[in-house]
Design a protein that fits this description.
The complex is a heterodimer of chains A (118) and B (193). With 118 residues, chain A is α+β, with helices and mostly antiparallel strands. Chain A has helices spanning 4-11, 41-61, 100-117, and strands spanning 17-24, 29-34, 69-74, 77-84, 88-95. In chain A, a hairpin with a 2-residue loop joins strand 3 (69-74) and strand 4. The chains are: A alpha+beta (118), B alpha+beta (193). Chains A and B meet through helix 2 of A and helix 5, strand 3 and strand 4 of B.
């Protein structure tokens, strides 16, 4: 069975993806890999966990069910988030020019692997 | 919303750690002290070193139990303290699970172990990961994070066993990985006895 670090290393090999982090709901970074010199995976963990809580509330309030994946687009990049079981979040930070469809697909494909190794 | 450990840590590191006339620091409903990590590691190292090979497992159990007893009573003091009430409880939305998240945030803020919950089956089992802890620097053989191991079982008791002080001896904790043993992080599996 691949270790969590192996799965994250595979994710940052996806074209355009610079950082892959798995965090607990409370922001505890279980593991993270970053190709970016400026991104601290600890900091990513803290902000992702805060942000995803708000997104889930939006889904509930609008009656569109449980969140499966989240996407944030900024001028300088993309953040794609997915839920790992009830207690984990995986977040990818990607360049703005990354192929969004592929990033989402790769994340979705890898979530069962992450669930297995947690 | 759940307990955001980053917020908890930021608040708690601002708590003044000032000793009283007896050299103890009153905080979180308990009295703590500030001693070098090497002191605690040396205690455990020497205890293990003087123990004959056939009694090492028993000594290891005793060291874990010291942390367990301390963690149970100190942990109760912490989670019922005004500081915890103010820094953590407003973020608690998932009951005992969130209290545990808060407890590990305190654990981190105090510098005992940068640790948190990987997985939890409420009332059944829990996996804890520690990416930095003082016992990782200890000398000796094998996995030897006795403190986190014992305290993790104690926290689980406080969260899911009978109400304090009657909730001991329901859970046990095993160390499955250790930085001191060459692993990337420490990992602890808490389960029912």
């Amino acid at each position: 069975m691949a270790a969590l670090r192996d799965v994250l290393n595979d994710l940052v090999k996806v074209e355009g993806v610079t950082t892959a982090v798995v965090v607990g709901r409370d922001g505890f970074v279980l593991d993270g890999v970053s190709r970016s010199a400026t991104l601290d995976t600890e900091a990513v963990g803290a902000v992702i966990s805060t942000g995803i809580g708000s997104s889930e509330v939006v889904g509930r309030e609008l009656g569109v069910g449980e969140m499966t994946q989240g996407l944030l687009e900024y001028k300088g990049g993309l953040i794609v988030m997915g839920l790992v079981g009830r207690d984990g979040i995986v977040a990818l930070v990607a360049d703005i020019g990354a192929n969004l469809g592929n990033v989402r697909y790769q994340l979705k494909k890898r979530i069962p692997d992450i669930e297995k190794v947690l | 919303m759940t307990v955001m450990r980053d917020q908890v840590v930021r608040q708690l590191v601002q708590v003044e750690a000032k000793a009283n006339d007896n050299g103890l620091i009153p905080a979180f409903n308990v009295l703590v002290n500030q001693l070098p990590c090497t002191f605690w590691n040396t205690v455990a190292e020497r205890m293990m070193a003087i123990t004959p090979p056939d009694r090492k497992t028993a000594m290891e159990t005793a060291l874990v139990n010291c942390a367990y007893e301390c963690g149970y009573h100190t942990g109760y003091g912490i989670i019922t303290s005004p500081e915890f009430e103010s820094a953590v409880m407003p973020m608690v939305t998932e009951g005992a699970k969130d209290v545990l998240r808060g407890a590990y945030a305190v654990f981190t803020a105090w510098g005992w172990a940068k640790s948190g919950i990987v997985q939890i089956k409420e009332g059944e089992s829990m996996t804890i990961r520690a990416v930095d802890y003082y016992e990782a620097d200890s000398g000796g053989e094998g996995r030897r994070a006795y403190m986190i191991r014992g305290v993790s079982a104690a926290f689980m008791e406080l969260a899911y066993a009978a109400p304090y002080p009657n909730g001991m001896n329901t859970f046990k904790s095993d160390q499955v990985r250790g930085i001191e043993a060459g692993d990337q992080f420490g990992e602890f599996a808490v389960s029912k006895k």
